[in-house]
Amino acid sequence: MNSASVKPAVQAHRPQGLVFWHLLNIPNVLTLSRLFLAPVFLALLSQHRFRYALYVFCAAGLTDALDGTIARWFDLRTEIGALLDPFADKLLLLSAFVGLTVENAIPGWLLGVVITRDIVIVFGYLLLLFYTDERVPIHPSYLGKAATCFQLASVIGALAGISQNWAELWRLLLYATVAITALSGMHYAYKGLAWLSSSEPQMFE
To answer: How confident is the model at residue 198 (pLDDT cuts 50, 70, 90)?
Structure first.
């Protein structure tokens, strides 16, 4: 028998504090702050305090830029952060469109196009998930990024009141936002159909 004594195996244990910090790191805290800023933004809109609502919206946009940058630079990316970040972005943007439409600062037809495009994307993704039984990778297209930029510009323009001093520029921005948003929705639908046909689900064989 070997004279060396057998030492009991020591199980690695991660303290709960470290797990909590891993989930609620700086990028995720910034993302959560963006979620909490949405009701503040809507409250300011309901009181017709557009200037302060603009400050809140820009502050939320700053947190959006910071959380992704910090997560990449310091390798703090988490799965919950990857889920919360786009949800917080969409919640704030849709809240802005709904609130500004209620306040007659943005036309209803623009809100309709934005919501319809998002419904098509979400419904299409769930449809692909159902038929292919696999997680479909989502990569924002150039049209999708352009649509987001135009939507942000429309919200900022409405809050800044450019329709009063630059009416022609405001109408051009609205029409461009509608066109880019609709095109991006059709592009995502085309990409989804292409993915569906390449996967060849059983019901289509």
So the answer is: confident
pTM of the model: 0.81
Task: Give the C-alpha separation, 97 to 155, whole Å.
Answer: 7
User: Which residue type occupies 32?
Assistant: L
Closest CA to 118 of 130, 106, 126, 108: 126
| pLDDT 10s digits, 130-140 | 777 767 666 77
Distance CA 147, CA 192 (A): 18
Whole-angstrom distance, CA of residue 141 vs CA of residue 148: 11
Query: Tell me: the pLDDT tens digits for 95-148?
Result: 999 999 999 999 999 999 999 999 998 888 888 777 777 676 667 789 999 999
Instruction: Judge whether 126 and 115 are in contact, CB under 8 Å.
Output: no
Residue in 105, 118, 108, 109 with CA at minimum distance from that of residue 148: 118
Distance between CA 100 and CA 82 in Å, rounded?
A: 28
Burial 83-93 (b: 16+ CB within 10 A, else e): ebbeebbebbb
